Sequence to fold (957 residues):
Amino acid sequence: MSEHEITLTVNGEKHELRVEARTLLVEALREELGYTGANVGCETGRCGACTVRVDGDALKSCTRFAVQADGAEIETVEGLSEEGELSGLQASFKRNHGLQCGFCTPGMLLTAGTFLEDAEDPSRAEIREAIEGNLCRCTGYHNIVDAVEQVATDGGGESL
Amino acid sequence: MSDAAEGGGVGEPDDAEGVFGSGVERREDIPLLTGEGDYTADVSRPGMAHLAIRRSDHAHARIVDIDTSEAEAMEGVAAVYTGEDVVDSGVPNSIPTAWMLPGLVTPQYRILATDKVRHEGSGVAAVVAESPQRARDALDRIDVEYEELDQVTEPVEAVEKDVPPVHEEAEDNVAFDFELGDEEAVEEAFADADHVASVDLRQPRIVPNAMEPRAAVAEWEDRTEKLRVWMTSQNPHLHRMLLSAGTLGVPENRIEVIAPEVGGGFGSKIYHYPDEAVTAWCSMQLGRPVKWRASRQEGYVTDCHGRDHDTTAEIALDDDGTVRGVRAETHAGLGAQLSQFGTATPSYLYATVLSGQYTVPAIHCRVVGAFTNTTPVDAYRGAGRAEGIYVIERLMDVGARAVGMDPAEFRRKNLVQPEEFPYESAAALVYDSGEYERAMDKALEHVGYEDLRERQERLREEGRYLGIGVANFVESAGLSPSGLAGDLGSQAGGWESSIVRFDSTGTLTVMAGTADQGQGHRTTYAQIAAEELGVDLEDIEVIEGDTDRIPQGMGTYGSRSASVGGGAIARAAREVRSKAREIAEHQLEASSEDVVFDDGTFHIEGAPDRSLHIQEIAHEAYLGHDLPEGMDPGLEETNFYDPENFTYPFGTHVAVVEVDPETGETSIEEYVAVDDCGEVINPMIVEGQVHGGIAQGIGAALYEGAAYGDDGTLETRRMDEYAVPHATQLPDFETDNTVTPSPHNPLGVKGVGESATIAAAPAVVSAVVDALEPFDIEHLDMPITPETVWRALGGAE
Fold:
């Protein structure tokens, strides 16, 4: 199996690593670099638990090989809060009980946060569409929509 | 009289503004929001190897030969094992059932198959390698030769004549033939009744799909001969016991099971599966830590499924709408092996709720439990009660039509009345308390029931089809008392255990034998302890999910954590308070009647300056310098709480849908849930449980349902083939509640984890069928997809 030298900048920190060509981005993040916040829920791009941001776009990191992300700026859930202070969206999830088991939460935060950057006064239906690719089995989504809506409406500080 | 005996009022003695009952934000959230929380798959140990399991692609086949030589020779492969290796190691190698029924056939259930594979996904060999990728690579190099056998996947078909047996011990594929109720009384009721209405229904298999796949990390330490297992568990103590007595034979006191963050369960993480035992066994063979993590596809064929019932049910009625009797005959698919509660779920947990919220003078139910060549079936959120309430609620709909009554009015007419509690149903349960009509009225008011019926009429004239579905439910929660459960066949206790301990500096530690998978136990348990002992939430630590830190427990299932686990915490806290009171009386030199306890402080009545806070008393208790004569130092109590009855949460859910007869599509316009779970510890968390429960009920009603192909393999094996609902497939939910305390629970709570799943499926099905009444549709089976509707309306003709 051929190996490749790649560079990934994760939450502002630059990492050089060797990966097999078949190593998925989520595997590189979790197993090689220790960013275990992104979770593996399906390996088929359906559940969204592994969503991270790659060069600003929300992306399911099981759908890319690590070599494809060579040189990219990656943002994971670990980079959302600064010095222990929750981001506006994280705090809104907490306030609105937008998480239960928490397994989908990192991906949900990255997807919703990316959506909120460009969304203007989104309706609840638009929020639901935005998070459609992220599955949650605990909350029934109602409180997640509340949490996102509250940030969209009140500002709630920076979303991500 | 000690405080522990002073009645059971919430917030007792006099704290009206307590944290019990308030929606405090969850202490669980920050690690989960920041990615710092560790799930089992995040656990890493020095020198850890990785396990992958070769699984059967066949539903039913004899294993002729397994050649592992090529896999063993691969670089980076530490070992390859087969079922014969496990047998040769001499471990007990037996996954037991936890619920016996009369005449039950209990076939051998090994952790890796030896002679035959009986369902797709059954493990036949294990590879341990230096990386998960390498382990998976090696799976393909194992050569398994099978002789395929005929298979059967449907429970009705399985027990017909001349069907190949899944197990030689059960040639007719019947695991049990269960009966409950009074058959003679039912026959009389049906003979005398003015009307009989019936329904044939199928409750399809549900794949639980907790977002976190199952996983285990096992670490055998040669030096101490101790086994430590991190695993996705709803009940680490039960897993400790079953790993010890069932599969591995390691003494129970040398096993530690740790359930770290657990990403949802819904029943699927209760059971002792082969895979976690294989992980631990491999670690014991190799003397190094081993990690296994299921892929989602493995989860689809190995996580216990739910439901799988085929039922014919009938209801006998008088002209005025009085229910005279109910009977049901069900074939329940158990899968290829008996999972721990796979026998209890379709028998006692099912047949005993067939009375629903109604006075049904005569009930009889027969359940044939069938072995099939499928993934084992066990409890999934709502377990048994969801299936039973679905049957009675479908019968209430067809019954209402048979006597020409409005379905809500027909239900109301037959409700058990508040003054009848405790109410003994004809299905062998004694409901603890309930005020059914109050919750039902509230739900109907929320949707504006009368106006909706008028709107429905108007829309029908325009060719639009609105449907209103009303579902009443009551469930038996808690799965205790132990004695009763034992009489019915349970091989486990129904108690829960807690330790409440003041530390010497005055902080409080609460240890609970339950195990959270997202319910927020650490938050609600802290609220209970804060209320009982008058200690600030910040001073309370709650510990769960580690058998070395919490000596005993039963775990989290059956909506039992708040009622049974919370009950144990409240009782232990009251005992702590009672001992603290004795110390206070001694040090304040006052007699019992003069000392009052108020928000954490003992003081002399009328002299509030002569006081001691309970946290100061904790310090005194550990100093031991000045305690009442004969009192032992320390301030901690252990409680084993075994309730005197189940608790009976109830409520009414109403779904309003519009069905498009052209496309068959159903859209949910409005969903209202009114739940009564007794006293509410944290309304925010209770609402969250209701939301999630509704989502799973709607999922079952409209989207989900596992299907097997003609070759006995699962057709719905991936998330793009099995519809776990997306955000756009669910509506906003409107929730409300009533409070009818459980009279026998120390906190008055009833539990809420499963309620909404039980209610939502019948509410939505009822709504769709109601919408299609003009087309003479009386019933549609779940999942009601557009295709289901289209076919029912003759689209296929």
DSSP finds five helices and five strands in chain A. The first strand of chain A starts at residue 3 and ends at 10. The two ends of chain A are 38 Å apart (CA to CA).
